[in-house]
């Protein structure tokens, strides 16, 4: 048994498909099949049930998987020890975030981090939540900033922040208002992200708990385009409070508190359970929390890793 076989086994176990495992490991499908068969043959065991729809791990595979995660975790920790042996931070940092988080906070964090660690090459990616999780699984990201839900159970997570969702629109549309109830939104033309976005799913679920169903006139995934259209009189949207930067729209865009339902979004930093964070990531996280502390309306949650 070697590290490559363990890595291929973990990929196949988590993906449930040779095609997906091969894509994740950046190899051809026969390479996955051959290494898994060799692993099974050497131990005289069977780890997967094969059928036309894919592969299903058996009871032995479940037990073996937990040991494999431990081995890969130890390997990452060993690499981290070597990295920490030098005071010089270099290499490359790849961070992902959902677009709704990738505004002022990410820009400021990246700029400050570069000043502190000028020799670390940075790649910042944003995308749909599902894309970011896939990139994490495939090893294309060091970590990602995501809204939290139950599908992160196989990841390490560290709480970062909580914030209220607010109603935004032209200052004339919201003139004289400091709050807006959910059932009052029907009097306005509403713009929301599509159901491909986790933000929309959060909004719909909270409104559903209050027996309310939103009927948007437009569905736009681009946050910048959504906010631009919300500037038209009579139109409103619902967004995280930190996405509304007064300097971007002058005095034209106004935000008011959304109540009944009061809706909050939690953001976590997440990475695969077998991955040990590099020293540069720890520096980035400290810069991130420092940047967040300057943002009004945001509750900082510098939480423990789960």
Explain what the structure shows.
This protein is α/β, with parallel strands linked by helices. The protein folds into three domains: 3-84, Orthogonal Bundle (Arc Repressor Mutant, subunit A), CATH 1.10.10; 92-159 and 266-300, D-Maltodextrin-Binding Protein, domain 2 (3-Layer(aba) Sandwich); 162-264, D-Maltodextrin-Binding Protein, domain 2. Helices cover 40% and strands 25% of the residues. The protein has ten helices and 13 strands. It has helices at residues 3-15, 18-25, 29-43, 59-84, 104-116, 129-137, 198-209, 223-230, 246-249, 279-292; strands at 48-51, 54-57, 92-98, 121-127, 143-147, 155-170, 179-181, 189-192, 218-219, 235-240, 253-259, 264-272, 298-300. The strands form two sheets. Strands 3, 4, 5, 6, 7, 8, 9, 10, 11, 12 and 13 form an eleven-stranded mixed beta sheet that branches. Strands 1-2 form a two-stranded antiparallel sheet. Strand 1 (48-51) and strand 2 form a beta hairpin. Helix 1 crosses helix 2 (18-25), helix 1 packs across helix 4 and helix 5 crosses helix 10 (279-292). The radius of gyration is 23 Å and the shape is globular. The protein starts with a helix and ends in a 6-residue tail after the last strand. The mean pLDDT is 85. GO terms for molecular function: DNA binding; DNA-binding transcription factor activity. This is DNA-binding transcriptional LysR family regulator. InterPro entries: HTH-type_LysR_regulators, LysR_HTH_N, LysR_subst-bd, WH-like_DNA-bd_sf, WH_DNA-bd_sf. It holds the Pfam family LysR_substrate. Residues 1-58 form the HTH lysR-type domain.
């Amino acid at each position: 048994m070697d590290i490559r076989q363990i890595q291929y086994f973990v990929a196949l176990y988590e993906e449930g498909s040779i095609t997906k495992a091969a894509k994740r490991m950046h190899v051809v499908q026969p390479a996955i099949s051959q290494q898994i068969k060799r692993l099974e043959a050497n131990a005289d065991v069977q780890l997967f049930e094969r059928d036309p729809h894919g592969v299903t791990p058996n009871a032995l595979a479940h037990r073996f998987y937990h040991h494999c995660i431990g081995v890969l975790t130890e390997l990452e920790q060993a690499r981290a020890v070597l990295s920490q042996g030098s005071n010089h931070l270099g290499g490359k940092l790849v961070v992902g975030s959902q677009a709704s988080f990738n505004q002022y906070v990410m820009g400021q964090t990246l700029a400050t981090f570069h000043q502190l660690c000028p020799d670390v090459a940075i790649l910042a990616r944003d995308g749909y939540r599902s894309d970011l999780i896939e990139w994490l699984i495939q090893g294309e990201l060091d970590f990602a900033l995501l809204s939290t839900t139950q599908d992160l159970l196989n990841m390490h997570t560290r709480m970062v922040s909580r914030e209220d969702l607010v109603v935004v629109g032209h200052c004339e549309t919201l003139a004289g208002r400091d709050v807006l109830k959910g059932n009052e939104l029907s009097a306005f033309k509403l713009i929301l992200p599509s159901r491909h976005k986790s933000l929309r799913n959060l909004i719909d679920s909270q409104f559903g708990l209050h027996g309310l169903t939103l009927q948007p006139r437009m569905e736009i995934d681009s946050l910048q385009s959504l906010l631009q259209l919300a500037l038209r009189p009579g139109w409103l949207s619902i967004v995280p409070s930190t996405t509304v930067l007064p300097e971007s729209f002058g005095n034209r865009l106004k935000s008011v508190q959304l109540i009944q339902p009061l809706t909050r979004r939690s953001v976590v930093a997440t990475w695969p359970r077998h991955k040990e964070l590099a020293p540069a990531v720890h520096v980035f996280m400290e810069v991130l929390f420092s940047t967040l502390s300057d943002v009004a309306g945001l509750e900082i949650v510098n939480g423990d890793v789960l």
